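ok so for the tutorial part 2 we go from a plain amino acid sequence to predicted structure tokens. step 1 is just haveing the sequence, like this:
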Amino acid sequence: MQTLIKFALGLAKKILAHPATGRGAWCRHLLLRSTAALLISCVIAPTVSGEDSSPVKLPPRIRAALAENASFFSGAHIKGQRDRRFLADAKTVLRALKTVVTEDDFTQSLRFELRFKGPLFRESIEYLPADNVYTRDAIYEISYDGTRFMLGYKRLKDPAFLSNVQIFTPAIATEYGKLQGDADSLAHMKFWYLHETGFTGPQTMASLGRPVASAILEAAARGQIVSLRDAPDGNKELVEVVIRAPEPWQSRSTFDIETHEPFTSLKNGTDAMQMRIEKERRQLAGKQRLIRFWLNRTLGYAVVEKWEMREHTGETMFHTKNSDFVKVTGGNVWLPNRSVVESFADLTAPLYVSPRPLYETSIRIDQCTSATFDDDAFRIWYAEPGVVVTDWTSRKATLQEPDQYQVPASPDDSPKPSSS
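step 2 — the prediction. this is what the tokens look like for a chain of 420 residues:
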């Protein structure tokens, strides 16, 4: 094994020592990709669980610390901002990602707010002033209040213009999604901060009702821990955990691409882009990602650095560094006030991974505190007259024809309450 590692490192040095252009540059990229995959197999494969080895288990002290960290979200209030900047020529990046999004929209700053109470959540994303008429000065929201699953869109300067609330139960939302060819078509939860700091929230309709959990503990429960060791840089404060997980970009849709009318009718602009993305996502079926975490022992095993890689190629897709840690409870729970992510890939081009980072995402936290919320805090409702409410839980609603009305100017004009 040591011989293979030395061979791979020597090969990488030789490749990097000889710059190339044109067709030679492409060949050089392929060789580097193959070398990276060889190194990953050499370093990680010896600890993979399988027929001849026991599953990798986390020590009790790490399990306890990760569980304590996740428990913070049983009642938490978080506010922050997400910013992006290009790390290469903007036009080149957008062309590589095959997106129709403009430079300004791609780098638009977003404010976000997260509220958690056990399995209940509300995520609010505010689009700051920009050139895009639909997204500027607007808030998108998604929530689960224990019974209802809700989506909201509110214009801040003119609430009556296009603002709306959609109300489902998880079961109805799932059936509605199936009509579109994907049971999770409404599961638009982002949870950027959770993802970069080693936690996982609800990601599908079926997972609504589950509280925020440690991504590593979730992987351990599924037998997906690949390796556990001291971090290879020699820093004794750090421990490295590698997990294997199904490729999250692979499509969950089951409709026939050639005959599904809503899909075959996608012809131009963003519609055509969605068609291409769906076709590429289907090519990722059965693929896996390796996610490498560095945990800091002195910070309650908080995630200080993270890499996501394609297992079959060894390509790095994302590299996250967390910093400015603060203690958020009376115990030993530490969370970062800053996360910086270098992206080598993007969902708009699911099959493409750049050899160099394309853009950087910065997440800055302004508030991260324990909080106690009433259940009503997870109900999305806009009281401004003219807001359109589309209610699939009403007694008058069917899956194809929901009950729809506008928020009245007077309480006397209110429709009868819906039945949940």
